[in-house]
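Example (one chain per record):
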Amino acid sequence: MGIHYTHRPANVPEICHIHPLADECLILWRGQAQFYMGDGWLEAETNDCALAPCGVYHGTRNQVECIYGGFASPPQLDLLMNSGYYKDGVFLPVPWERLSVQ
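Predicted structure:
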């Protein structure tokens, strides 16, 4: 399974997309937003989640600052291959930094 976590400021455009090989569970950890699932937008509040099965067009949008998470199985190699951290079938070392808690 692959897991991702992201902070998104208010009103950042989202590109809805599909994953050809993975189901994805989207979780809104903080904020108020909308999930797009196949054919429409669903209202979401903190701790709401939605499942986008493999091949279903999905995304998120928000007018306030939000924290999102996602879990995918199998891992979304379609995203990682374009990240710059995957080359010739191998994941490269990723730089990291400690984030301050506010």
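Caption: The helical segments are 77-80.
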